[in-house]
Design brief:
This protein is of the alpha/beta class. The protein folds into two domains: about 210 residues, Rossmann fold (3-Layer(aba) Sandwich), CATH 3.40.50; about 35 residues. It is about 45% helix and about 15% strand. It contains eight helices and seven strands; from the N terminus they run βαβαβαβαβαβαααβ. A seven-stranded parallel sheet has the order 3-2-1-4-5-6-7, sandwiched between helices. The radius of gyration is 18 Å and the shape is globular. Belongs to the short-chain dehydrogenases/reductases (SDR) family. This is 3-hydroxybutyrate dehydrogenase. It comes from Rhodobacter ferrooxidans.
Length: about 260
């Protein structure tokens, strides 16, 4: 399939999962808008490298996903949005009774409210064109829970619910909305944690990955950013025209337990 002629906005996409999704959408022919809250020369250079690699248009637009106005402004500044991938997210870990209020508010704003604002801004254009795809990057933690991650889990569960409501409000209009729920994904951030885990547990790399980091992922294998990107591309294809309002788990069997 080709996404030539479509424009995709991917929030939180100058590294990790978001960048992998942007790369795969560009590989499929979509023009892409990547985003984060910084505005550095290397951010714009990254967009230029995507354009050069895939023969598409690519831009970097800085916008703080904790700010609802900036979220809506991102869509407006992009000029067009056929595909919206809400990927921006942050994490903080603490017991509920010790969880800092500012961290709770920031996680809910970036992981959940940003998707509301970008979706609200993108839907009128999608309706006018009679075609659109909204893909929310939730998490296995959007379907299950772990201790000490109350804000993240509340936000990701909320993102799954927002996806269902968006799907119902756009059904029959050529627009779909789904949530992709990754388990542990091998990103540069995760890769950087492995040496510390090896030292803390006195294990070699293979053992600490299998027995510690992937203890809840039955496949004992990380998902990759390319696999997440490929899943998003599939959801934008005609094969997925009737897939809406649901979750797709890319978690090595985690949520099957």
């Amino acid at each position: 399939m080709t996404l030539r002629g479509k424009t995709a906005i991917i929030t939180g996409s100058n590294s990790g999962i978001g960048l992998g999704i942007a790369q795969e959408l560009a590989r499929a022919g979509a023009d892409v808008v990547i985003n984060s809250f910084t505005d550095r020369p290397e951010d714009h250079a990254l967009a230029a490298s995507i354009a050069a690699a895939h023969g598409v248009k690519a831009r970097y637009i800085a916008a703080d996903m904790a700010d609802g106005g900036a979220c809506r402004g991102l869509v407006e500044r992009a000029g067009s949005c056929d595909i919206l991938v809400n990927n921006a997210g942050i994490q903080f870990v603490a017991p509920i009774d010790e969880f800092p209020t500012d961290k709770w508010n920031a996680i809910l704003a970036i992981n959940l409210s940003s998707a509301f604002h970008t979706t609200a801004a993108a839907l009128p254009g999608m309706r006018a064109r009679g075609w659109g795809r909204v893909v929310n990057i939730a998490s296995a933690h959007g379907l299950t829970a772990s201790p000490y991650k109350s804000a993240y889990i509340a936000a990701k569960h909320g993102l799954v619910g927002l996806s269902k409501t968006t799907a119902l409000e756009t059904a029959g209009q050529g627009i779909t909305c789904n949530a992709v729920c990754p388990g542990y994904v091998l990103t540069p951030l995760v890769e950087a944690q492995i040496p510390d885990q090896m030292k803390a547990h006195g294990m070699d790399r293979e053992t600490v990955v299998r027995e510690v980091m992937l203890s809840r992922q039955p496949s004992r294998q990380f998902a990759t950013t390319e696999q997440l990107g490929g899943t998003v591309v599939f959801l934008c294809s005609p094969h997925a025209d009737q897939i809406t309002g649901t979750t797709i788990s890319v978690d090595g069997g985690w949520t099957a337990l």
